[in-house]
Design a protein that fits this description.
The chain is of the alpha/beta class. It is 18% helix and 27% strand.
Length: 353
């Protein structure tokens, strides 16, 4: 298939720059994956669209303030965006400008000079990772994540130009496990009260962790999508979560992935060591996935999907198209544009069922 098969023309003013005051006030389009029929609701109406015995699978990863601003010994400024922990205080990271972040370069963070022994955080570029990203080894006192909370900023997607006033609005209300460089945005619409209401309806909520990398925003550069090299992300599924999903499936409930990240995790686990094969059953599992889901893929675990509206020609719209069909998906996107839906991370949502 061609990358251009997944293009649509989006007016720039429909890219949501800020979250709504109330999380569940977002609009919710429903898309029937068989007929292509759409309907327009609000996210707080989601419980009405769920049935007792359904299972919502939610990604509880928490975004770390992975964007750091530092100074080199020469006085030059450098921006570091953390991507993945390598162990021993070493992280894979993006560096801007990259030409300044040569091996051996020492960087101070938090308005300190590189010669200031009392600075909260230092880093040294130790080399390059496969693909050209930098490796940086940090020196700090205490707990690294606490230091990041003081010095770092949220690494918002490049299409968001406005400053985020409340960093918690780029976290889901159920986020628990720090490690993501971007939010699992489908979950941003949920409130604690809405989750409680869903539970009272007899719907199970099962939590897994997939740490979202900035590769999720990496464009598809090959015209033939099958030639695209998918980024890798770490995920883990507990035995409890696997049993909740398996039980729901055995009892006839739908497995509804909240977000493309949760969908990729359960589809990966269903065909890896922890899975039981083509029946969609899961087992406890942790590891990395580079699964690329596009039309022609046969879903083994996910029956439905809650997701935001994604960038043209992105791997995310390809995943939605794999579940709902390319024609149905693009027609739904055109309807969303006509109805003036809000797009991307802080935008509105879609339920593919």
């Amino acid at each position: 298939m061609k990358k251009s098969d997944f293009y649509y023309d989006l007016p720039r003013e429909l890219i949501a720059q800020t979250p709504l005051e109330r999380r569940d006030a977002s609009r919710l389009m429903t898309l029937n994956k068989i007929t292509g029929e759409t309907a327009h609701r609000y996210f707080h109406e989601l419980p009405e669209l769920l049935f007792p015995g359904d299972c919502l699978v939610m990604n509880d990863s928490r975004v770390i303030p992975a964007r750091l601003f530092g100074r080199l010994a020469t006085g030059g400024a450098v921006e570091i965006v953390l991507l993945r922990e390598q162990g021993g205080g070493v992280w894979e990271a993006l560096a801007r400008p990259g030409r300044k972040a040569r091996p051996g370069a020492r960087i101070s963070f938090g308005n300190a000079d590189v010669s200031d022994k009392d600075a909260a955080l230092f880093g040294t570029i130790t080399g390059a990772a496969p693909g050209g990203n930098k490796l940086i080894k940090f020196e700090y006192e205490g707990i690294f994540l606490e230091t990041l909370e003081k010095l770092g900023k949220m690494p918002l997607p490049p299409y968001i130009k406005e400053e985020l006033r409340d960093a918690e609005r780029y976290q889901t209300v159920y986020s628990r496990e720090p490690g993501s460089a971007a939010a699992p945005t489908a979950g941003l619409h949920f409130t604690k009260e809405l989750i409680e209401k869903i539970g009272r309806r007899g719907v199970v909520t099962a939590y897994l962790t997939l740490h979202v990398g900035l590769g999720t925003f990496r464009p598809v550069k090959t015209e033939e999508i099958e030639e695209h090299e998918m980024h890798s992300e770490y995920f883990s599924i507990s035995q409890k979560t696997a049993e909740q999903i398996n039980s729901a499936r055995r009892n006839g409930g739908r497995i509804i992935a909240v977000g493309t990240t949760a969908c990729r995790a359960i589809e990966s686990a269903s065909q890896m060591r922890g899975g039981a094969g083509d029946d969609g059953a899961l087992g406890e599992f942790s590891g990395f996935t580079d699964i690329f889901i596009y039309p022609g893929y046969r879903f083994k675990c996910a029956d439905a999907l809650i997701t935001n509206f994604h960038l043209p020609e992105s791997t995310l719209i390809m995943l939605v198209s794999a579940l709902a069909g390319r024609e149905n998906t693009l027609a739904a996107y055109e309807a969303a544009i006509r109805e003036r839906y809000r797009f991307f991370s802080f935008g509105d949502a879609m339920l593919v069922k």
